[in-house]
Write a structure and sequence with these properties.
There is one protein chain. This protein is mainly α. Helix content is 69%, strand content 1%. The protein contains 21 helices and two strands. The chain has a two-stranded antiparallel ribbon.
Length: 512
């Protein structure tokens, strides 16, 4: 296990507080990403809006999450900016939870959810970036743990909301509506970015509003409150609180200073200089596009960024579209699963994603990221093929859902660790990959929703199989461009018997 490795254990202990802080911030991300689906009908009542209007709140959150992911790299330039952005983002999530019960207009609610999306996007980019900066070659296991916490938060928020959700229509009128007796089914069939599938339901928008969902949001706000406090303590420890910046920064231990000096001397020698050194690394998405960063870059440098992003575009897109449409697929013919039983499928899917991320923490220490990505992508393709073959089996739908959750669980952190290893932490991989994953989750849900509407429920599995095959194709291209990418001289000189020195990081990284 990784804690049996003295070097990695020492590195973890040295960066214990920042690592735990980033993990907790990603818990906020998970808490915020999963609550909207179950609570959307009660929020419809609260805002007295139509189903089609309220589902666009999904879009405002997801679009701004993508925008926040693109802009998150802007705050990475210094440790102070990164931590202040994470503090503001995690605090914003608690504030959003607290003020959602007071949003009685759907436009106001969409604006508030857009703020939450921006905060989530910054958290997504910055937490991944900072862990990669701290651990570099050893980052895989810590990235797996980071993404376990987002899964844990995504499991927890629906459980918190469930006791406070309305069992019947929460806008009371003198008449009856055709959907009020089927509310649990409608709640589970709500799909982000695809409001057209709800047009046949008619709910009142005027009347007495009866909902207790406010308590769920206030509970989540309290649960999330320790996260910005933890970030503030880290800011204070690093003497980066604005009112305390006059203090001198923490000094490095003498042995670390000596090792850093030797490393710097070696890097300055002409014989060890790699052929290509981008001017900056881990920039924001727009800074990455600056022409000066491409000067002298080999074609493989661009290809690794693009193929890594396309691979995550497919795998995260599969994750989003499967969790969004598996319930609708199950209740339609030929399976015709009961609404209550079909409702367990999305929960089963997310439960096995969280379980898979937990299992991947020790596995990633023993297994290379490239191997883990191969197993993940092959597993996704095989699972979809079997789902197609046994498309009339309800039992295998549940087995396949659990299997798919396991294989998709560790894909993102594994691809991120693998791509950063290829680029030697010099490129813009984290920002580009996070953005590619976010775009895939949005676009593939829209695409699959439209195809299912036109072609029927069976196309849900066909689309998944095609996306899985494309993901495998992009993985093969990533391997090919890895072979093409020039290897730094410092890596060539390392022998198997001589492990690399622990990464001391860049200016502004944690050292004590």
């Amino acid at each position: 296990m990784w804690w049996g490795d003295a070097r990695v254990t020492t590195l973890f202990k040295r960066n214990l507080q920042p690592t735990l802080t980033y993990w907790s911030v990603f818990f906020s991300f998970g808490l915020c990403i999963a609550f909207l689906g179950p609570t959307l009908l009660d929020l419809r009542c609260q805002t007295q809006s139509s189903l089609s209007q309220i589902t666009w709140v999904f879009f405002s959150q997801q679009f701004c999450l993508l925008l926040g992911s693109c802009l998150g790299g802007v705050f990475k330039r210094t440790l102070s900016q990164s931590l202040l952005a994470l503090f503001a983002s995690s605090l914003a999530i608690s504030v959003v939870f607290a003020i959602i019960p007071f949003c009685h207009n759907v436009v106001v609610l969409a604006v508030v959810m857009a703020m939450a999306g921006l905060a989530m996007g910054c958290i997504d980019t910055l937490s991944n970036l900072q862990l990669v900066k701290i651990y570099q070659k050893d980052s895989a296991v810590f990235l797996q743990a980071l993404h376990f916490f987002v899964g844990f938060g995504a499991l927890l928020s629906p459980l918190i909301a469930d006791p406070f959700l309305s069992d019947t229509n929460c806008i009371l009128t003198n008449g009856t509506t055709n959907g009020s007796n089927n509310l649990p089914h409608i709640r589970k069939s709500l799909v982000p970015h695809h409001p057209g599938n709800l047009s046949h339901y008619d709910f009142p928008t005027k009347g007495l509003v009866v909902t207790r969902v406010s308590y769920a949001f206030w509970i989540m706000a309290l649960i999330n409150l320790p996260v910005p406090i933890a970030v503030f303590f880290l800011l204070y420890k690093e003497r980066l609180v604005p009112c305390c910046q006059s203090s001198s920064p923490p000094l490095l231990p003498a042995d670390e200073l000596a090792l850093e000096t030797r490393t710097t001397d070696k890097d300055d020698s002409p014989s060890s200089s790699p052929k290509f050194q981008p001017d900056i690394g881990h920039n924001d998405l727009f800074g990455c596009c600056h022409s000066k960063n491409f000067r002298g870059a080999p074609c493989s440098y661009f290809a690794v960024h693009v193929t890594g992003a396309l691979l995550l575009f497919m795998t995260d897109g599969i994750l989003g579209e499967y969790s969004g449409f598996v319930y609708s697929y199950a209740v339609e013919k030929p399976l015709s699963v009961g609404h209550k039983m079909a409702g367990y499928l999305p929960s089963l899917f997310w439960a096995f994603i969280t379980l898979g991320r937990l299992i991947s923490i020790p596995v990633s220490y023993r297994m290379k990221p490239a191997t883990m990505v191969f197993i993940n992508v092959i597993g996704v393709v095989i699972t979809f093929f079997l789902l197609l073959i046994f498309s009339y089996s309800v039992v295998f739908l549940f087995v396949g859902t659990a299997s798919l959750g396991l294989f998709l669980s560790s894909t993102f952190p594994s691809v991120l660790a693998y791509t950063e290893d290829i680029l030697q932490y010099k490129g813009c991989a984290t920002t580009v990959l996070v953005t590619g994953a976010g775009v895939g989750e949005m676009v593939l849900q829209l695409l699959v929703g439209s195809i299912i509407h036109d072609q029927g429920s069976y196309s849900f599995l066909v689309c998944g199989t095609i996306f899985g095959a494309l993901a495998f194709t992009f993985y093969v291209f990533l391997l090919f461009f890895h072979r093409m990418h020039p290897q730094p001289q410092s890596d060539i000189d390392l022998t198997p018997d001589k492990p690399p020195p622990p990464p001391l990081g860049e200016p502004g990284l944690y050292q004590g």
